[in-house]
Design goal:
Blueprint: E1 6-16, E2 22-33, H1 36-41, H2 46-62, H3 67-72, H4 74-89, E3 94-106
Helix pairs in contact: 2-4
Length: 109
Amino acid sequence: MDLREQEFRLPPVPVLTVEDAIVSVGLAWRYRILDPVRATYEVSDVQMAISMLTVTRLRTIISRLDLAQTLAGRARIVEELTPLLGESVDRWSTEVTHLELAEITPVTA
């Protein structure tokens, strides 16, 4: 297990806003393993677990925002998402050191 800081980019995922508009959101983050034993035994795949957790939390946050708030609120979304991830990945002895919304694009039908 590599204990150096790792970077991961998640391909854009579709997310619904409060008014059922679909936006495509791409994410990037950096993380590091603090305790390889806990990171190995508490979860089978840290990177996948962080990915799934991030998408779930992101969808929850954006589902409370309208399209305009979502497009203009990149910093607000990251500000709300970061501590939620921090609390969750702590049990895996992992730290998310940087989180970025790489893109937010409205999806047209």
